[in-house]
Design a protein that fits this description.
The structure holds two protein chains of two kinds. By secondary structure, chain A is α+β, with helices and mostly antiparallel strands. Helices cover 27% and strands 11% of the residues of chain A. In chain A, the strands form two sheets. Chain A has a five-stranded mixed sheet with strand order 3-4-2-1-5. Among the domains of chain B are: 87 residues; 133 residues, Trna Endonuclease, Chain: A, domain 1 (3-Layer(aba) Sandwich). A five-stranded mixed sheet of chain B has the order 3-4-2-1-5, covered by helices on one side. Chain B has a five-stranded mixed sheet with strand order 6-7-8-9-10, with helices on both faces. In chain B, helix 6 packs antiparallel against helix 7, helix 11 packs antiparallel against helix 12 and helix 11 crosses helix 13. Chain B is globular. Chain B starts with 24 loop residues before the first helix and ends in an 8-residue tail after the last strand. The relative contact order of chain B is 0.09. The chains are: A alpha+beta, B alpha+beta. Chains A and B meet through helix 1, helix 3, helix 10, helix 11 and helix 13 of A and helix 3, helix 6, helix 7, helix 8 and helix 11 of B. Strand 10 of chain A pairs antiparallel with strand 10 of chain B, so a sheet runs across the interface. Chain B: It comes from Penicillium daleae. Chain B: GO terms for molecular function: nucleic acid binding; tRNA-intron lyase activity. Chain B: Belongs to the tRNA-intron endonuclease family.
Chain lengths: 439, 467
C-alpha cells in the first residue's frame, strides 16, 4: 500500500520538481518569520510569499531597509520567549549502567542481558523516564516490566535538544541523599554539552549517525534501529549462488538440431564466430531481434536470482543501520512493520572512497526484493528501470553535511529494448520553454 | 518492427521481397523544394544497425502454401545470397582514432545506429549542409544555427534585463533623494516613496520575455500562412523587429545585406564547395562494428591493408593509454578499452544507442532508438571492480586494485548533481575484472569473463517522500 503511493509520488512529480524547488538549498529570507502567527498574531491567513531576490548590493536605501528588516525578523524570532509548561515537563534520569539487570546479577555490565530484562529493553538504553507522558513516547523508547520507559541515547539526545525532555544526573554520581521516590527533585539537570559528551559514543552512536537520525526525526519520520546497528554483529557466511546470467548456449535435442539446420541455411559458410568475429556472421539475418540475441555475450547481474542475504552478513559502514517509517505509517513499537526506507550511514572522513562492488552488492542483497510493480511501472520502462529491484539509501555525512543517495539495483538486461514496445515513435518535440535543455 | 512486415495473402505466390537495401541519404530524403517541416526520422533511421535483415514469411498452420513460401524464401537465399555491404574506415595511429571519409559510409553509419560523430559538427555529420545554408545555397535552418540564434536572443534579453534593473535602481535613488529633500526627516515618507517606486518598476524576467517572443513568432507564422502567396513576407518581419531597439534593427539590416552580397559571390563558385568533414568513430564503436557486426573493416592508413579483427583488438587496447603502449607490450586485463568496450557491447546488445557522455561528465549516454527521437534518459559512469579473489591475494595486488577503483564522494556528488540538472538518471556501472588469463585468440571468451552490474543512483530528498 504505502509502497504504491510512494512509487507514484517518486516516479512523477518528485523527479520533475526535484531541481527547481529544493528549499533547503535556498538562502532564506527571514522576513517570512514576521508572518508567522505566533509572532504577530494578526489574523492574516495563507502562506507567506517569497519576494524577489537581489543578486548584488546597490546603493538604494530600499535594499538596505529590506536587509535590516530581514535581520530584525530573525532576531525577533530568536528573541521570542519559549515557554515550557511545567505540566508538560518530562523528567528523565541518566543511567550510565544501562537498564538494571534482573536482581540476581550484579549491575555494571550492559551487554547481552536483554533476555531477562523482559521483552524489549535494549542494553544500549541509558536514560529512563519514570513517568512518561506526551506524544513522543508513541514511537520512541521501550518500556520495561515496571512501566518505566527506557530511551536509547539518540532518542534521549534528540528529545533533550528539542526541549522536550529534562535529563537529570543520577544521584549516584552527584552524591545526593539516595532517598527513594524523591530522586527527581534532588538531582541536578544535565546540560546539553554534558548530554552530548555522555551519550555520543554510547552503544555505537556516532555523531554522523545522530545527525542523520535527528534530521530525519525532525521532519517527521519515525526511526528504529536496524539489526545492523551494532558494527560487530556478524552472521555466518552463506553459500551464495552466482547471480550473473550466462550467455545463451544452443541446446541439444530436436530444437537444437532444427536450429542448427536453419542456421546452416542462413549462414552456409558459418562465418559467425565469437572467437574472431563477426559475432553475428556474414550470413542472412532474419530479424534484428535475432541479431541482438546473438550479441548477448556479456554476463550481467540479475537481481532476482540473488536470494536475500542476512543483514548482519555485511561489513560496516555499508550495512543498514536505520529503519525509517513515513510519518503516516502507523507503528506499534512492539511489532514494527517493514520499514519504508533502509538507511546506511557513511562518514566520508572514514570511508573516503565510494563503495566497491562487493560492499555495495552485499548491502543491497541484505535488503528485501522490491521489484517494480503497479500499473504505471508496467507501462513506463524508464520508471521500472529507475525503481530497480532492490534499493537502499546511503546517508553520506561529510563533516555534518548529509547527502542522501538512493541506490537501486537495476537490471537493464531485463528490459529488452530491441523488442521495441516502448520506443519513442516520433521525432522528439522541442520547444525551449516547455523543457529544460537536455541533449 | 520484426514480424509486422509481410503476412502473405493466401493464393498469391508470395515471393519474399527483401526490404530495400538502405542507400544514401539523397535517395531517402525528399528533395528540398517545398521544405518539409522536419525530415522523416522514422524512415531515415528505420534500421537500428548497419546490417541488412531479410524477413521470412511467417508460417500459417492452416495454410500449407505458406510453408512453401517459407521454403522458397530460404531457397532463394541459398542460391543467391544477398550482398551485405562492408564499410571501410581507417585507423590513424598518430591520433589513436578511426576515421571514415567515404560519404556514403558516413551516412550509412549515422543513419543506421548513430555511430560516430562529424568532425566539424555537433553530432550528426552535417557540416556540408550547414555550410550550404550559411552561404545561402539552401533553404532552412540547421540545428546549430537555431541554437546560436537562441543563445544570441537570450543574451540580448539578459542585457535588456540588466538595463531595466539599472534603471529601476536609478529611479529609486532619485525618489529617495526627492523624499529627503521634501524635508520629511522621518523614515516613513522615504519608505512611502520607495514603495511607490516598487510598484512602478516591475521586475524584468528573461524567461517571460523569451516566452513572449516565442508566442509572437508563432502568431506570426500563422499569419504568414494565412497571407502566403498574396504578399511578400518581408513586411511582417519588419513589423516584428520594429519593437527592438533601433540599434539592433540597424545591425540586422546591415547583416542581411552583407549576407546577400556574400551569397551572390558564392553563387559564382558553386562547385568549389566540397565536403571537408569526416566521421570519427570511437574505438568502442569501431570494434563493435568490426567484431560484433562485421559491418566494417579497418584499414591501416599507411599501407592500406585491412587489419584483421584480432590484431585490431590488441591495437585498440594498446592505444587506450596515452601515450599508446608499444605493440610488443603485454596486454593488461584491465585495459581501459577492455572495460569500456564491455559496457558498450552490453548496452548495445540490449538495443540502446550508446554515445559518449563526455558532455555531461559521464562515460556514456543511453538513447532509446537514437538521439533524434528522444533525449538520453540514462547517463552511465563506469567503475572497474576487482572482486575476483586473484586481486586480493597479495598486498601489492590489493593496493593496485584499491587504487584503480577509488573514486571520491565529492566526484560522485558532482556527477550526480550535473545529471539531475539535465534530468538524466545516473547509472553506476561496475565492471568486474577477471583474473588475468593467458591471452587467447578467442575474443568472445575473453570478453565473456567480464561481468557487468548496474546501479541506479539518485538523490533522496527526505522532505519529498514524507507523503
Amino acid at each position: 500500500m504505502a509502497d504504491a503511493d510512494e512509487d507514484a509520488v517518486r516516479g512523477t512529480t518528485v523527479e520533475a520538481t526535484q531541481i527547481e524547488t529544493d528549499l533547503s538549498d535556498e538562502t532564506q529570507d527571514f522576513r517570512l518569520l514576521n508572518h508567522l502567527n505566533f509572532l504577530t498574531d494578526t489574523s492574516s491567513s495563507g502562506l507567506p510569499r517569497r519576494g524577489e531576490k537581489d543578486f548584488e548590493p546597490n546603493p538604494t536605501e530600499f535594499q538596505a531597509d529590506v536587509l535590516s528588516a530581514s535581520r530584525q525578523a530573525m532576531h525577533n524570532a530568536l528573541a521570542h520567549p519559549r515557554l515550557h509548561n511545567p505540566k508538560n515537563q518530562v523528567i528523565a534520569i541518566y543511567a550510565p549502567e544501562g537498564p538494571p539487570p534482573p536482581p540476581a546479577v550484579t549491575p555494571g555490565q550492559d551487554t547481552g542481558k536483554p533476555v531477562a530484562r523482559g521483552a524489549s529493553v535494549s542494553p544500549d538504553a541509558c536514560v529512563y523516564v519514570p513517568t512518561p507522558k506526551g506524544q513522543h513516547f508513541k514511537s520512541m523508547g521501550q518500556a520495561d516490566r515496571k512501566g518505566v520507559i527506557w530511551l536509547l541515547p539518540e532518542e534521549a539526545l534528540y528529545l533533550l535538544e528539542r526541549g522536550s525532555l529534562d535529563i537529570r544526573w543520577p544521584t549516584s554520581i552527584t552524591g545526593g541523599i539516595g532517598e527513594e521516590g524523591c530522586e527527581e527533585e534532588l538531582s541536578i539537570p544535565m546540560s546539553l554539552q554534558a548530554a552530548y559528551a555522555c551519550l555520543i559514543g554510547r552503544g555505537g552512536l556516532t555523531l554522523e549517525r545522530f545527525t542523520v537520525y535527528s534530521s530525519l526525526k525532525r521532519i517527521g519520520y519515525a526511526i528504529s534501529r536496524a539489526p545492523g546497528w551494532n558494527d560487530s554483529a556478524k552472521a555466518e557466511d552463506e553459500d551464495r549462488p552466482d547471480a550473473y546470467t550466462q550467455p545463451l548456449k544452443r541446446g541439444a535435442g530436436l530444437a537444437g538440431i532444427l536450429g542448427s539446420i536453419f542456421n546452416w541455411i542462413n549462414d552456409p559458410k558459418s562465418t559467425s564466430s565469437t572467437a574472431a568475429g563477426p559475432v553475428i556472421g556474414y550470413g542472412i539475418h532474419r530479424s534484428y531481434a535475432d541479431i541482438y540475441k546473438k550479441l548477448a555475450l556479456i554476463p550481467w547481474y540479475d537481481p532476482t536470482l540473488a536470494p536475500q542475504r542476512d543483514p548482519l552478513n555485511t561489513t560496516a559502514p555499508y550495512r543498514v543501520i536505520l529503519h525509517v517509517y513515513k510519518p503516516n505509517t502507523s507503528i506499534k513499537k512492539s511489532a514494527l512493520p517493514p520499514p519504508d526506507f533502509r538507511i546506511a550511514v557513511i562518514s566520508t572522513r572514514e570511508a573516503t572512497t565510494i563503495p566497491t562492488l562487493p560492499q555495495l552488492s552485499a548491502l543491497l542483497e541484505s535488503t528485501p526484493l522490491d521489484p517494480p510493480q503497479g500499473e504505471k511501472m508496467e507501462r513506463n520502462m524508464y520508471m521500472r528501470l529507475r525503481h530497480g529491484y532492490r534499493n537502499v539509501i546511503l546517508a553520506v555525512v561529510d563533516q555534518g553535511v548529509t547527502s542522501f543517495l538512493r541506490i537501486a539495483d537495476v537490471a537493464f538486461g531485463k528490459e529488452r529494448l530491441y523488442e521495441g514496445v516502448n520506443g519513442p515513435t516520433g521525432p522528439k518535440k522541442g520547444g525551449n520553454f516547455k523543457k529544460k535543455k537536455k541533449r | 518492427m520484426a514480424e509486422a512486415t509481410s503476412v502473405p495473402k493466401p493464393g498469391m505466390t508470395a515471393v519474399p521481397v527483401p526490404l530495400p537495401v538502405p542507400e544514401t541519404a539523397e535517395n531517402l530524403r525528399p528533395t528540398r523544394a517545398p521544405r518539409p517541416p522536419r525530415p522523416n526520422y522514422r524512415h531515415i533511421h528505420r534500421f537500428p544497425l548497419p546490417v541488412n535483415v531479410h524477413h521470412v514469411p511467417s508460417v500459417i498452420p492452416h495454410n500449407p502454401l505458406s510453408l512453401i513460401s517459407v521454403a522458397l524464401s530460404y531457397l532463394t537465399f541459398l542460391i543467391s545470397p544477398p550482398h551485405q555491404e562492408t564499410y571501410t574506415a581507417y585507423f590513424d595511429s598518430a591520433t589513436s582514432s578511426v576515421h571514415v571519409t567515404d560519404e556514403k559510409t558516413i551516412r550509412a553509419l549515422w543513419e543506421m545506429g548513430f555511430f560516430g560523430k562529424g568532425s566539424l559538427s555537433r553530432s550528426e555529420p552535417n557540416w556540408l549542409e550547414q555550410e550550404k545554408k550559411r552561404r545561402g545555397l539552401m533553404g532552412g535552418n540547421t540545428v546549430e544555427e537555431a541554437t546560436r540564434k537562441r543563445r544570441a536572443e537570450r543574451r540580448q534579453l539578459k542585457l535588456e534585463r540588466a538595463r531595466h534593473e539599472r534603471l529601476a535602481v536609478e529611479e529609486r535613488l532619485k525618489a529617495e533623494a526627492a523624499a529627503r529633500e521634501t524635508g520629511s526627516v522621518d523614515g516613513l515618507s522615504v519608505d512611502g516613496a520607495a514603495e511607490a517606486a516598487t510598484i512602478s518598476v516591475e521586475k524584468f524576467s528573461v524567461k517571460k520575455a523569451m516566452e513572449a517572443k516565442y508566442h509572437e513568432r508563432r502568431q506570426q507564422a500563422i499569419q504568414n500562412k494565412n497571407t502566403a502567396g498574396s504578399t511578400d513576407p518581408s513586411p511582417t518581419i519588419d513589423g516584428s523587429s520594429g519593437q527592438l531597439s533601433p540599434v539592433v534593427e540597424k545591425k540586422d539590416v546591415v547583416a542581411a545585406s552583407t549576407i546577400a552580397t556574400q551569397a551572390l559571390d558564392e553563387e559564382l563558385n558553386l562547385d568549389t564547395l566540397e565536403n571537408k568533414e569526416h566521421l570519427q568513430l570511437s574505438t568502442e564503436e569501431t570494434f563493435f562494428l568490426v567484431y560484433a557486426l562485421g559491418a566494417l573493416q579497418v584499414v591501416d592508413r599507411h599501407n592500406n591493408v585491412a587489419i584483421p579483427t584480432s590484431s585490431l583488438f590488441s591495437l585498440l587496447r594498446h592505444h587506450s593509454y596515452y601515450p599508446p603502449r608499444p605493440d610488443s607490450s603485454q596486454l593488461e586485463v584491465d585495459d581501459p578499452f577492455m572495460i569500456s568496450y564491455v559496457v558498450y557491447h552490453h548496452f548495445r546488445s540490449l538495443g540502446w544507442v550508446v554515445r559518449s557522455g563526455v558532455k555531461f561528465g559521464t562515460d556514456y549516454l543511453l538513447y532509446n532508438r537514437g538521439p533524434v527521437f528522444s533525449h538520453a534518459e540514462f547517463a552511465v559512469i563506469i567503475i572497474p571492480s576487482y572482486s575476483d579473489p586473484y586481486w586480493s591475494q597479495t598486498q601489492e595486488r590489493k593496493e593496485y586494485a584499491a587504487n584503480k577503483q577509488a573514486r571520491s564522494w565529492w566526484w560522485l556528488h558532482c556527477v550526480n548533481r550535473v545529471q539531475a540538472q539535465v534530468k538524466k538518471s545516473l547509472v553506476v556501472c561496475y565492471v568486474d575484472v577477471p583474473a588475468p588469463v593467458q591471452t587467447s585468440a578467442d575474443i568472445g571468451a575473453e570478453i565473456g569473463h567480464y561481468r557487468v552490474r548496474e546501479f541506479l543512483l539518485r538523490r533522496w530528498v527526505p522532505n519529498r517522500t514524507r507523503d
